[in-house]
Write a structure and sequence with these properties.
It is built from 10 helices and 14 strands. The protein has about 450 residues and is α+β, with helices and mostly antiparallel strands. A hairpin with a 2-residue loop joins strand 9 (about 230-240) and strand 10.
């Protein structure tokens, strides 16, 4: 560099290393600037702790000659040794070269520190947004199994892991993988267990996170799938003194270790996710309690309805005894029998509705009909009565069932738009005979609006 003013190239090099806040790009700028500044054909930057920030960055435009000279300059970030800048591919390095490299290394330490802060802020923002998204998802109406999958999948993406798995304690005192999120088929990961007495298990059950540099070679790892993975984090899902399980985030073999920032953010995410799981479980419990309270109300209403009908029927029969004329007696008895049959059907239908699992959508045909009428009750202000005749579950095929439900939905919607409707009776008869003599199913929807409206739909079985 004899005969040239070294100041402008040095300024250019110093400015170039600070032009980007992304850490890996900053490292590459440092390597490129060092090579340009000294005329070296080879430059490499090795980090003292690869797990702290990233991997080795190098520049080799012309190869390395064995007989060439080399120079190494340390790079420090504040009081910490970040790594070394190594240059070769030049017959000799002058004292001026080394002086320029030391100045560049000082500026590089500042640029790396800024890039670290920026990267940490970006990572923290991503993990916070991820935790918020998980909380929102868990506090919706997700089933418990789906909630665990949501936590595993979101954590895998945030950690750039090969898999996200949830383990839960077993009755035998171990832990079992109950859900897994991977880029491809999780294969036999789900169902894998950690045997009781494992050192890792003792830490996890005690609420301590476990960080592993290489799952395949760490003697603490005992599962049959450990050979597939490298660096890993195993984080307790613990909230309010309750251990829900463990979130494990293994990376592929050969992938870079987790940084200290990633470990801290993952631990915080696990705590937030565990709290969200507890809140979601409590919310689900409150919803179940509301369902059970509503069922209790339905049972009381049913009791009142049954008592009133039976009392009225008893009065009818008692009145019949005092009447004269066989024809009048027969007609009154016929009405009494019809009323008793209607009451029995109401009881059966309501009991069947109460037996449906509150958190599950009905899968049976009878349950789907009851769901449609229950949905209409929110609009009507009262629950339509429903009566089933025949073996509706076994006789009505799925295609016909879908058509019937569509017709029922339409009839209920039309009834809700008519004025003066205070009662709707729905009847599904699987023993109907069609006009052409074929066996069929018949849907009848009758409401008391105006002069009364009856809608009939039927189809062959």
């Amino acid at each position: 560099m004899t005969g040239e003013d070294p100041l402008p190239p040095l300024l250019e090099a110093v400015l170039s290393v600070g032009t980007d806040l992304e850490l890996r790009t900053t490292l590459q700028h440092i390597v490129d600037a060092a090579a340009e500044l000294t005329g070296a054909r080879y430059a490499a930057l090795g980090t003292a702790d690869p797990g702290q920030d990233g991997l080795l960055e190098m520049r080799t435009p012309g190869g390395v000659m064995p007989e060439t000279a080399a120079v190494t300059v340390p790079i420090r970030v504040q009081d910490e040794e970040f790594g070394t800048l190594h240059l070769a591919g030049k017959k000799s390095f002058t004292a001026e070269d080394e002086q320029l490299l030391h100045v560049l290394a000082t500026q590089a330490g500042i640029a790396i520190g800024n890039a670290r802060l920026y990267e940490a802020a970006r990572q923290r923002e991503r993990w916070i947004e991820g935790a918020a998204a998980v909380t929102t998802a868990l506090l919706s109406d997700e089933p418990a199994a789906d909630a665990l999958t949501t936590v595993a999948e979101r954590a895998r993406i945030l950690a750039d892991a090969a898999a996200g798995v949830i383990l839960q304690p077993t009755e035998a005192g171990g832990m079992e993988i109950v859900t897994a999120s991977t880029y491809g088929d999780p294969g036999d990961i789900v169902g894998t267990t950690i045997a009781p007495g494992s050192p890792v298990l003792r830490q996890l059950l005690g609420g301590e996170p476990v960080f592993v540099d290489d799952s395949a070679t760490d003697p603490r790892m005992t599962t049959h799938v450990r050979h597939r993975f490298g660096p890993s984090m195993m984080l307790p899902l613990q909230a309010e003194g309750r251990l829900i399980g463990t979130l494990a985030l293994p990376r592929r073999r050969g992938d870079r270790p987790y940084t200290s920032v990633e470990r801290l953010l993952a631990v915080q995410f696990a705590s937030q996710a565990a709290l969200a799981l507890v809140l979601a479980d409590a919310q689900h419990g409150r919803e179940l309690l509301a369902v059970f309270e509503d069922r209790d109300r339905i049972a009381r209403d049913l009791h009142d309805l049954v008592v009133q009908r039976l009392f009225a029927t008893g009065m009818m029969l008692e009145s019949t005894q005092r009447r004269s004329g066989a024809e009048d007696v027969q007609e009154a008895l016929g009405k009494a029998v019809d009323e008793l049959q209607s009451t029995i059907q109401e009881v059966r239908t309501t009991i069947f509705a109460l037996q449906q699992p509150p958190a599950d959508a009905p899968t049976t045909f009878r349950g789907r009909v009851l769901r449609e009428t229950a949905g209409a009750a929110a609009v009507l202000g009262f629950a339509p009565s429903v009566r089933f005749t025949g073996a509706v579950e076994s006789r009505v095929p799925e295609q016909v069932a879908g058509q019937l439900l569509t017709a029922l939905r339409r009839a209920l919607a039309e009834a809700s738009r008519r004025s003066g409707v205070s009662r709707i009776e729905v009847a599904v008869d699987a023993t109907a005979v069609l006009p052409d003599g074929r066996d069929g199913v018949r849907l009848t929807v009758h409401d008391d609006g105006g002069a009364g409206t009856t809608v009939t739909w039927q189809a062959p079985l």
